[in-house]
């Protein structure tokens, strides 16, 4: 619903680390798409970072990033006219506290900072009085492992109650991710077969043709497992496997996500047999020549960072026990494909006359590109009694509201529906901790795949 903001309740979005990649490439364009959708909405944007940017440079950046997201020129000018940039080291606790006090409320403090800096900045606020109209928006990854995620949650809750903390995973704002809920709960035909009795396996895949693209500083200390599987793909998995909500509000959704994640474990508790790590060698992906990951500028090969991660999980509950759920994400692959594919079991009996049996039925929910595809056995080719695969495929319309716009709009309104609750964030780390430990111990060898290929396919992580 369009929003009209009066001068008094106009929120301030204070971006900490505003000179970084996230702000320019995702956050401000997201805000631009939100303003295009909801022109009556008003917000004061304040940027900050250590290296001072002058106000004109910052205004120019804000204007062009908002326009990039679809915001009209007048709106972009209006926001740019009231924005300012403050030189601030958030680890200087006095300066940080003064900065917060000086903001016009209500305030969203958006931590677009390296995770360790976010933790130090929050630590500096401990024990200080904090205004009660301030909310925290914290970027993923939430911590660097289970213990640090718990510490970060405890620290945040020492500062503000959980209902004023917004942990951001922008996948939850993606219209095609949310389509998983729409499809599952808006159609009668799916839920009855959405069980281990009918489903043979689930694949949650995020493959991309992009290689490192100059992001070595971030990526080489993160890797595919933490960058993609640890939060993004686990949340998608939870949306696919959770029980049906009676209503779509924050409490209900968060409870259901937490419940299914608590039941989720590495397949047979054997991370060595059920996970794979690999990195790309030189090749050609996405129409570009790609050098081997270990030759990319800024990469330290001794870190052993993977560019492809694959893990098989099991949701151990009545609905899903025994169904392998495979998560995989890789860089510099032959195809851009982010999707969930549900493969159904064969019919209990196929009449013998159908020579060769039936090809598997599959439902694919495409996240990027957005699509829905169904593979069904038919004898459509006219061959009297031979079954073959018929592929029905439809594109989903693009949403003009970018994922960060969807998420930011709700944060500015104090709506927590698309926020990652603290226990959900911790469960995501808990599920993958055995894999991280197995990889650190060397129990899972690093494989290689040629850039532009389908990735390693031989000897898929076992599910027996
Ligand atoms: P960058 O490294 O590009 O930017 C981080 C910013 O933080 C820099 O502008 C830096 O500016 C500032 N900064 C660092 N230390 C301090 C400090 N002590 N005080 C104030 N500012 C500081 O990171 P990104 O923008 O890429 O990422 C930010 C966060 O968003 C991370 O948590 C990341 O995981 C998350 N994220 C990023 C995505 C992306 O695609 N970029 C996607 C999803 C999440 P300066 O040195 O001038 O102070």
Automatic annotation (TrEMBL):
Residues 183-458 form the Glucose-6-phosphate dehydrogenase C-terminal domain. It comes from the Bacteria. Residues 15-179 form the Glucose-6-phosphate dehydrogenase NAD-binding domain. Keywords: Carbohydrate metabolism, Glucose metabolism, NADP, Oxidoreductase. Pathway: Carbohydrate degradation; pentose phosphate pathway; D-ribulose 5-phosphate from D-glucose 6-phosphate (oxidative stage): step 1/3. One of its GO terms (molecular function) is glucose-6-phosphate dehydrogenase activity. The keyword Signal does not apply. SUPFAM superfamilies: Glyceraldehyde-3-phosphate dehydrogenase-like, C-terminal domain, NAD(P)-binding Rossmann-fold domains. This is Glucose-6-phosphate dehydrogenase. It comes from Dietzia cinnamea.
